[in-house]
Queue: 2 jobs
Job 1
Amino acid sequence: VRVIAIDGPAGSGKSTVGAAVADQTGLEVLDTGAMYRAVTLAALRSGTDLLDGTALGKLAASLRLSVGPRVLLDGEDVTHQIRSPEVGAAVSVVAAHAPVREVLVEQQRAWVEEHGGGVVEGRDIGTVVFPDAELKVYLTASPQARTHRRAGELGATGAEQLGAVAEGIAERDRLDSGRAVSPLQVAEDAHVIDSTALDLDEVVKEVLALL
Ligand code: CDP
């Protein structure tokens, strides 16, 4: 099956680029970050200890997740809740646990089987989940550019709000890149695209040219 892997840090433009590439290829997109966020929301709601990997893995396995244009958690539409600052601040802690990743990676592979391939975006797609992907793109940009993009999406303005967004991104970068299990890293055969000085249309063109 045909898989296009798009990995990279927060605010690098994965979702925008992924959607455009899906549009052009007729593949569907899977946002694996939304899955980690939904598990994190469930953990916060149930008061599960965020340091207890075994409990979090069990929790993840007990949930019915559906990730598409809307994100459903046991049938409830949590599309907006999973983008809350609380979930953002906890998701990298939850995602660092191997039992959680095992459950979600299996679901990601099953999703691709069912959909006959896909554009899959995340942190470990080219390195761990689909090492044989047809195309691997690692999208990145300077922390400043990523902060401004994310702030724009959130409607954050002013020095204080911008500072909070920058801090959140820096903290997730640190946790995602530094964890022992499936850290964020560039796959050996990935094409690195630095979008600091590019607009997202130009990035999409570059990805389509690679394809
Ligand atoms: O959209 P944004 O770049 O803010 O992040 P996301 O894709 O929603 O992912 C949220 C978090 O989930 C990341 O910071 C990682 O901690 C985790 N994640 C992961 O560990 N592995 C993935 N394949 C995707 C996300």
Job 2
Amino acid sequence: MLRIGLTGGIGSGKSTIAQIFKILNVPVYDADGRAKALMENNSELRLRITQLFGEGSYQGGKLNRPYIASRVFESKEFLGKLNSVVHPAVHNDFDEWCGRFQEYSYVIQEAAILFESGSYKRFDHTILVVSPEETRIKRVMERDGLTRSQVVGRMENQLTDTEKMKRAGFIIYNDGKLFLTKQVLEIHNKFVSLQT
Ligand code: ATP
């Protein structure tokens, strides 16, 4: 079974493309969603987060997201510290999850950051979704009700597509011109053939 990392900048269309893979019966692990769940429910991770950011990290048993977000936005060092405890928990959780799909040709992990975090090394292949910047900004403004500068601010924390394209194994162009399903099918057939 191959492990594939699927990534792309904010609003590039990762989740949309993950949905197409799911229709093809490919198991997809949502790294960002699982990270949030683990921060809430994994007792070891809760302890580590409390050690890092204090008792205010949880309120009434729930993760105090605004507080954590404010600490993380204070400095890159805090973001790095948070990642240093969350990433290993997600890696372990993904490894366990993979165990359920041994008979599949491949599984996908969808993650917003893969090249930035170094996690890409854990995968057999990587897929990068790219879209024109202006399209991404408009999509996210519409989807999340954000201002242009809020979206641009989030983009600035991620590597540029040019940097990511140097490292990606496969690229899917979600520019509204090329058919997504055709591109997904080509990659799907490639992975299936590598495993048969
Ligand atoms: P994020 O990193 O912010 O979670 P993402 O990369 O997962 O974003 P999606 O949520 O898949 O991106 O797409 C962003 C928005 O753009 C969604 O509202 C989605 O429905 C829309 N979208 C994505 N691709 C297309 C497309 N080809 N045509 C029209 N709308 C699209």
